[in-house]
Amino acid sequence: MDSAWIFQHSFIDGQWLKGEGEFAVTNPADGSEIVRASRVSPSQVEQAITSAQRAFKGLKTTTAEQRSEVLYRWYELIMKHQHSLAELMTLEQGKPLAESQGEVAYGAGFVKWFAEQAKRSYGEIIPASKPEHRISVIKQGVGVVAGITPWNFPIAMITRKVAPAYAAGCSFVLKPSEHTPLCALALAHLAHQAGFPRGAFNVLLSDDAKAVGEQLTASETVRKFTFTGSTQVGSQLLKQCASTIKRTSMELGGNAPLLVFASADLDKAADGIIASKFRNAGQTCVCVNRVLADERIADKLLAKLQQRVAKLKVGPGTEEGVNIGPLIYPQAKTKVNELIDSALQEGATLVGERQSLEGNFVAPVLLSNVTSEMRISREEIFGPVLTVATFKDERQALQQANDTPYGLAAYFYSQDVAQIHRVAETLEYGMVGINEGLISNPVAPFGGVKQSGLGREGGHQGLEEYLEEKYLCLNLD
């Protein structure tokens, strides 16, 4: 890994600023220390907010075309350095290098998309009820945006927030995960090269997300707050944002079901399940958390899944042919093993082997005879564990699928056209994959319902999250 891509200080007002104290950024594959990052101070957080406010005032005078050109340059720089960014991601996050390469391109896709959408923040002309009036609506950037992003997608989670904010004419103060801050700093470095004004994109390093979050949410200068993470933390951040009436976007926890109906192509269903479940070692908010299979085809599906799971290779993301890298830290492995143990104690059946691996690695596990009452069906697993339950009919399948406070993503496989329409409309989720296990796309709105969050990222809807509407009434008399 080229050390030129490893930064250790916060990026504030276009400068690298050393903080107060340090914390270690480690490689989850072997626990080795990559760098000691400097912890941002409260005064530096305030400095970032102030610089962002100054940058926002300048951005208000730029044209959509100018902001679009800057975003295009950022996109081109990200893609130019795709391999280096992917190596950096695998180093600090652990996912296989091929997945990291894919995420860099996926994350860059949001920058490209919003470079295009920047020029499409259209207003409207409204027919007036009085002849002397002319009524119009214009859209303007909401103001300074603050965001907290997670470790599981350390580039894409950032670009899909920062790119639409900049496209709308907003500045950004980012607190990335303390486990994966290096990708965020690399993105800020490239954004600065692309022409982001000083203060338009600030990155704050800290292993005390609670303290930084409290300062960002309490600021009256920050007019919008965006967060990706757990429902528990998101709920607390919403409470903190209420005191200053901020706009918010929250992409929170999930418990994604994947239903396999009797008419499904079982090979395609098995392939889709494996692709969705084991991407990033199962550490995604939209990966399949529970498979629900028609009892008439469940055994056939299990056999196909067992064959595919047995072929998955676990190891450091830098090794050739690895499908599953390490979990992000030891506590994550502990939780996953606890969920497996509790499922087996509650009556689930282990299909195939359960290997014990050292470090943060967890070998893929397949469980059958799982029920909706089990803990493993109620909680987000966030690990390479695939559970299979059965249903008798469509009604029961939908009841089981919707029996959760979460509503982020759901999937199902069916070749019955009428059933496809019924099920898609009945599933209580913000996103539904139909005969497809990988649904994330910059051109489509990403987000959930119920306790899975508020707002959408991506699509034309993603730009609207950073715009305010202003009604203008002109009297011609």
TrEMBL record:
<feature type="active site">
    <location>
        <position position="251"/>
    </location>
</feature>
<dbReference type="InterPro" id="IPR016162">
    <property type="entry name" value="Ald_DH_N"/>
</dbReference>
<dbReference type="InterPro" id="IPR050740">
    <property type="entry name" value="Aldehyde_DH_Superfamily"/>
</dbReference>
<dbReference type="InterPro" id="IPR029510">
    <property type="entry name" value="Ald_DH_CS_GLU"/>
</dbReference>
<comment type="similarity">
    <text>Belongs to the aldehyde dehydrogenase family.</text>
</comment>
<protein>
    <submittedName>
        <fullName>Succinate-semialdehyde dehydrogenase</fullName>
        <ecNumber>1.2.1.16</ecNumber>
    </submittedName>
</protein>
<dbReference type="InterPro" id="IPR016160">
    <property type="entry name" value="Ald_DH_CS_CYS"/>
</dbReference>
<feature type="domain" description="Aldehyde dehydrogenase">
    <location>
        <begin position="16"/>
        <end position="470"/>
    </location>
</feature>
<dbReference type="InterPro" id="IPR016161">
    <property type="entry name" value="Ald_DH/histidinol_DH"/>
</dbReference>
<keyword id="KW-0560">Oxidoreductase</keyword>
<dbReference type="GO" id="GO:0009450">
    <property type="term" value="P:gamma-aminobutyric acid catabolic process"/>
</dbReference>
<dbReference type="InterPro" id="IPR015590">
    <property type="entry name" value="Aldehyde_DH_dom"/>
</dbReference>
<dbReference type="Pfam" id="PF00171">
    <property type="entry name" value="Aldedh"/>
</dbReference>
<dbReference type="InterPro" id="IPR016163">
    <property type="entry name" value="Ald_DH_C"/>
</dbReference>
<dbReference type="GO" id="GO:0004777">
    <property type="term" value="F:succinate-semialdehyde dehydrogenase (NAD+) activity"/>
</dbReference>
